Every structure is written in C-alpha cells, then in structure tokens.
Amino acid sequence: MKMKMKFLPVAFTTIIALVLFAFTPAGKVYLTHTGHISFYAGTSLEDIQADNYQVAANLNPATGDMAFSMLIKGFEFKRALMQEHFNENYMESDKYPKSTFRGKISNIGAVNFDKNGTYKVTVSGVLDIHGVSKNVTEPGTIIVTADSVREKSDFDITLKDYKIEIPSVVKNKIKEVVQIRVDVAYKK
Description:
Strands 1-2-3-4-5-6-7-8 form an eight-stranded antiparallel β-barrel. With 188 residues, the chain is α+β, with helices and mostly antiparallel strands. Helix content is 17%, strand content 48%.
C-alpha cells in the first residue's frame, strides 16, 4: 500500500506537467516532475522546514512562460507529527490539495539558452496557495549548462495573505513570514 501512495503524487505531478505543457505555445519547452521547493518557517523555539521533490514544472524559453504545480502533501518534514499538523491544521491539504504558480519571465531575452552562464531574471505571475491567488513578482536565476537548465528563486510569503491561520498557542514557534526556496532543474 505504501508504494501505491508514493506513486500517486508522482503520477499526479506528471499529469499536471502534461496539462501545463498542453496550454503552452508550440516550440521547445523544458519539463520536469522532480523539481524541488522547500520552506522554512521556524523560530528560535522550533525548527520548521520541509522539502517537496515532486514539483511539476515547465518553461518555454522562447516566450518566458512558466508554470509550477505541486501537491501540498508532498512536503516532507523530519518529524511525522509536524507533517500531520501541517497538512491537517494549517494547510488543510484535503480541502486545498495543491499549490500552483503560472507566470512569465519578463526579461527572457537576457537569457541565452545556448550559452553556459548564470542569468538574473524577474518572474511575475499568479501564486495560488491554500485556495488564495495572489499576483507576485520575484527575482530569480537561470543557470544554463551543457546538459541542463536550472531555475532558482528565494522569496518570502506572509501566511495571513494566504489565509493560513496559526493558533495562538504555537504563534511564537512559527514565523508569520515564510522563506520559500525554488530549485528546478530541466534536462536539455
């Protein structure tokens, strides 16, 4: 049974990647379903961090269009109880099972996908978390190598902006502003 449960998130993210690909203009598009998104929401009283390695993503290098999708239950914590509270009490993962981003790299012309290098970019789009959609603009980096294209970004979100409530009993253990780290690699 455990193997089936592990397969479901991978299958779901693969389907999401294919759906996102279907709505992307023709041309070369980079795809993955093994992207990595992590977050840190800890304080000096509690170390709260989690990783999700089942992020479906696509990038159209011609237009700068990009999209990410992940299952919230794909986040893994060091402690099972923390993961349970995250899914049941804060993120309500059964009600809001996924998070998505759909946007565009505004300065895609500054990136040479045929030349190795590190390129600073600006990404704008709609981030959907916990059933709330917000327009965001954040800096990022694209790293081009001979065999891969990697997208990276570090940014913060405020929990109350996405209607994620923290009970007063644990308010001093959880930051209200969460640090998000995106690291997605595509094979060329």
